[in-house]
Amino acid sequence: MNLKPIGLFESEQIEPYQAGRQPDELGLTGKIKLNSGENFEQALQDLEGCSHIWIIFGFHLNQNWKPLVQTPRSTKKIGVFATRAPYRPNPIGMSLVKLISVNGLELIVGENDILNESPIYDIKPFHPEHDTAEDAKINWLESSSLEKHSISFSPFVENQLEFLEQNNIREIRAFVIRQLEYDPTNKNKKRVETNQNYWTLAYRTWRIDFSVSEASIGILSIRSGYSTEELMAFDDPYSDKKVHRLFSKEFN
Question: Does 68 map to a domain?
Answer without folding.
Answer: yes
